[in-house]
Amino acid sequence: MHRRNKWLDGLIMLVLIVAACAMLLPYAWMVLSSLKSNMEIVSGSHTFLPSKASLEGYRTVLVDAPFGRWLMNSAVTSVVITAATLFTSALAGYIFAKHQFKGQKLMFILILATMMIPFQVIMIPTYLITAKLGLVNQLMAIILPNLVSSYGVFLAKQFIEDIPQDLLDAARMDGAGELRLMVRIIAPLILPMLSALGIFTFMNSWNNYLWPLIILNDESKMTVPLALVYFNGTHMVNYNVVMSAAVLITLPVIAVFLIFQKQFIKGLTMTGMK
Q1: How far apart are CA 181 and CA 217, in angstroms?
Q2: pTM of the prediction?
Q3: How far is CA 105 from CA 96, 97, 100, in A?
Q4: Rounded to whole angstroms, how far apart are CA atoms 34 and 205?
Q5: Taking every annotated instance into account, which residue ranges of this chain make up the domain ABC transmembrane type-1 (predicted)?
Q6: Among 10, 51, 73, 217, which has the highest number of CB atoms less than 10 A from its own CB?
Q7: How far does Cα 15 stand from its chain's mean position?
Q8: What are the tens digits of pLDDT across the range 29-54?
């Protein structure tokens, strides 16, 4: 029995290693391709390692294009959207979890229903509203439709429902108002959930491609995912430059995950869902 369990553990470990290598292979290929010359890539050579490592692709991205400007645009929009999502999700989740008001269940159902609607369905109405507000080619056009997340509201409600009501009542008896209640009690208790939600929101905002492509055509207002289109030539694609841009775009997301990975994992394991 012990030997069989040992073989089973080894088999599971082998499967996990193979799966991890399969998932990491595209990223490794992307990094190594960014170090190749464009001629080596388009020649049809399928060698994994570059014959001669070159940083020409990175030089083109960082020197010959306003990549720093695009990086700042993505950073501003992603940080603002993430902060606004965490604030609105925590506030709305608290109201739905701990307060009773008329039409509460219907309103919450409507919020959940929006999770089932693909963005492509509301893309044209959203564009028309944005154009009416005069926000085309403005970073606010990216931020405004993403200030509230129905998934974030749902997740926050599930977490806050698990907080004992006696704890909140005791804080109110000590003179704590609703704002202090949120800041001093609710927020620390749901911090793992906020961390996980924040990472997901930041990643989605940073990698958002379709909506910025539609609403932005001013080069100075572009976000980093649009850089991949910018570096595509009319008749030929500079693959090493595109791969270099993709590596640079991926680095901030990896950095955010590494910084908050403990809270992220803790948030995933403490879903609070019933």
Answers
A1: 44
A2: 0.84
A3: 9, 11, 9
A4: 24
A5: 71-260
A6: 73
A7: 28
A8: 889 888 888 788 777 666 778 888 88
